[in-house]
């Protein structure tokens, strides 16, 4: 929610002169993106988003992220398309930072999603999984199951300051997940962060998916489990089975879940809840004094985790029942 | 530099339905404006700026500000034009705040203005003064000469923590300015905050003036004095007479200074420097811990004030000499 790097008009004009995008008309820093600095840039050829990658994004990962967006956009998954400069690169440098110019997507994210939005998101997620199947680059999930315990150990001794008993709860959960985590599920490119604010809608349809900066190779069904966490709980943290049913059905309009994926879903959903619980705990305990960005409250994901612990099968997510 | 109020898609769509601006396509909070929350809004009829007025702007002043922008825009002074809703109002309410939708101006502000920019700004300022002459509403300058001492007294005892001797210097300066301030200069509507970030350029021409939220009725020449402070000093605080000459000449292409105005200019420039020194000292001493907005360093204006104290006549600002 901040502009970390102020770009001068001279520097921007010089940067843009390397692209075939016409003349600069205006640019304004936008209050979106926790990790990077974003500007909305108008040129004589239209609107664009300019992203300057700040320190939390590894430069080594950028060819994967930008290449993926270009790959998906060419396969009708609407997402920002990186603009290549005259020499064919989609990665440049501006104000000492790696920078990219991408197409502007109309649409806006839905603050209070309804079941019909969840259905469209499920559909779009499956399309993303199919379109990503022939993407050549790979990226390891930096927040995979095996990264959770080392992350936890960085704040374990302070965990109970967030909620009494949290240290023991996470430790027990890690023991279960590391033992039972399914290793033979269908894998591919996943978004890994498809929260409501990363899905734009226009007139009830998905108009674009954004923010691919957690995308990686991992189990496809784990991406669905992330969406169950991100889209199917109410503001009072109650689980909305109608939304989950819509999401899973929307997904299966494009790609059917395998038997193994269906069986694994409750455990995957626990894992997804724990993954966000862990990063939120860490960010919460390490927020700088006077931070521009307010970290999310970790407790939201503790409640989601507890719900998933109570789930016996994918049927509890509304899967496979006849109701509408 | 912040979005103080988060607007939901439902609330925005409902707000926009009162205007003839088509359907909402996208909206993003922009990191501009210290006082208010601003969004860039795209609809099927084009881009707009949506402003939510936060607590530092008095609701009673909004009809003056919005009426002035509409008045000026109708007289070829390019500035954001408030959009009237279907009932003819240009002031609405959104998220419990007064809110207005204005047209989007292409252009961007010049980080390192050159003399030719100063010339264009002088020209545009005089056009604004002429176009404002028949504006019917009036607004008292809330930061006039007579408001400076009460403001100073709110932080006088802490002033020396900013710079040793500052309290005595400001006190002596107030004594001079309150005694000698000219009271019979031509008056009218002034912008009162025409800093580089409030002037958009496109291809070397002014494409728009923005941020009229300090506009008021006061001496026209005082507005020029503010611009001399805002545009004609270098980053090392040295005065650039070439820029000042260009600014004054640009102004006189449209409106000639009177004899009284020329005589008063050094004192007006001291007053303008003191006005910004005072508000910056106050903001500096009262910045909240962990503030999103970093206040400007007041010392910049102490240096400008000292320069103007050394000036003997408007000739020291490059006025009336034959050089180019």
CATH topology of the largest domain in chain A: Aminoglycoside 3'-phosphotransferase, Chain: A, domain 2
| Percent helix range of chain A | 25-40%
> Can you tell me the overall shape of chain A?
globular
Q: Spans of chain A with pLDDT under 50 lasting ≥5 residues?
A: none
Taking the sheet with the most strands of chain A, its summary is: 5 strands, antiparallel
Oligomerization state:
homodimer
What's the structural domain tally of chain A? Answer: 2
InterPro entries (chains A, B): Aminoglycoside_PTrfase (IPR002575), Homoserine_kinase_II (IPR005280), Kinase-like_dom_sf (IPR011009), Pseudomonas-type_ThrB (IPR050249)
Family (chains A, B): Belongs to the pseudomonas-type ThrB family.
GO molecular function, one term (chains A, B): homoserine kinase activity
Domain Aminoglycoside phosphotransferase (chains A, B): 27-255
Q: Mind sketching the topology for me?
A:
The structure is a homodimer of 324-residue chains.
Chain A: H1 9-16, E1 24-30, E2 37-43, E3 46-52, H2 62-73, E4 92-94, E5 97-103, H3 115-131, H4 145-153, H5 166-180, E6 187-190, E7 199-202, E8 205-209, E9 216-219, H6 220-231, H7 241-252, H8 259-285, H9 299-309
Helix pairs in contact in A: 3-6, 3-7, 4-5, 4-8, 5-8, 6-7, 6-8, 8-9
Could you characterize the architecture of this molecule?
Chains A, B: InterPro entries: Aminoglycoside_PTrfase, Homoserine_kinase_II, Kinase-like_dom_sf, Pseudomonas-type_ThrB. Chains A, B: It catalyses: L-homoserine + ATP = O-phospho-L-homoserine + ADP + H(+). 2 copies of one chain form a homodimer. With 324 residues, chain A is of the alpha+beta class. Chain A has 2 domains: 9-103, Phosphorylase Kinase, domain 1; 115-317, Alpha-Beta Complex (Aminoglycoside 3'-phosphotransferase, Chain: A, domain 2), CATH 3.90.1200.10. Chain A has helices spanning 9-16, 62-73, 115-131, 145-153, 166-180, 220-231, 241-252, 259-285, 299-309; strands spanning 24-30, 37-43, 46-52, 92-94, 97-103, 187-190, 199-202, 205-209, 216-219. In chain A, the strands form 3 sheets. The first copy, chain A, has a 5-stranded antiparallel sheet with strand order 1-2-3-5-4, with helices on one face. In chain A, strands 6-9 form a two-stranded antiparallel sheet. The first copy, chain A, has a two-stranded antiparallel sheet with strand order 7-8. Chain A is globular and about 60 Å long. The mean pLDDT of chain A is 94.
């Amino acid at each position: 929610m901040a502009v970390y790097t102020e770009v001068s008009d001279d520097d921007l004009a010089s940067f843009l002169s390397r692209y075939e995008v016409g003349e600069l008309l205006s640019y304004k820093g936008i209050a979106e993106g926790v990790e990077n600095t974003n500007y909305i840039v108008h040129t004589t050829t239209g609107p664009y988003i300019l992203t300057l990658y700040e320190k939390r994004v590894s430069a080594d990962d950028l060819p994967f992220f930008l290449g993926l967006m270009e790959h998906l956009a060419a396969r009708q998954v609407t997402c920002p398309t990186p603009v290549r400069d005259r020499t064919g690169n989609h990665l440049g440098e501006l104000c000492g930072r790696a920078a990219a110019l991408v197409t502007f997507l109309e649409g806006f994210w839905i603050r209070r999603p309804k079941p019909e939005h969840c259905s469209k998101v499920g559909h779009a997620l499956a399309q993303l999984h199919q379109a990503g199947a022939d993407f050549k680059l790979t990226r390891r999930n930096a927040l995979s199951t095996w990264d959770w315990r080392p992350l936890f150990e960085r704040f374990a001794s302070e965990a109970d300051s967030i909620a009494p008993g949290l240290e023991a709860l996470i430790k027990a959960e890690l023991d279960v997940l590391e033992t039972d985590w399914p290793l033979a599920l269908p894998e591919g490119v996943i978004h890994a962060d498809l929260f409501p604010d990363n899905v734009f809608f226009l007139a009830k349809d998905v108009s674009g998916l954004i923010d691919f900066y957690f995308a990686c190779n991992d189990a496809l069904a784990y991406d669905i489990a992330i969406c169950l966490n991100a889209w199917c709980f109410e503001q009072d943290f109650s689980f909305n089975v109608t939304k989950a049913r819509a999401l899973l059905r929307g997904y299966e309009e494009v790609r059917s879940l395998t038997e193994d994926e269906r069986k694994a879903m409750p455990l995957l959903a626990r894992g997804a809840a724990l993954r966000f619980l862990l990063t939120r705990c860490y960010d919460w305990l390490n927020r700088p004094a006077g931070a521009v960005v307010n970290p999310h409250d970790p407790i939201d994901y503790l409640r989601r985790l507890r719900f998933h612990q109570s789930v016996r099968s994918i049927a509890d997510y509304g899967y496979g029942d006849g109701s509408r």
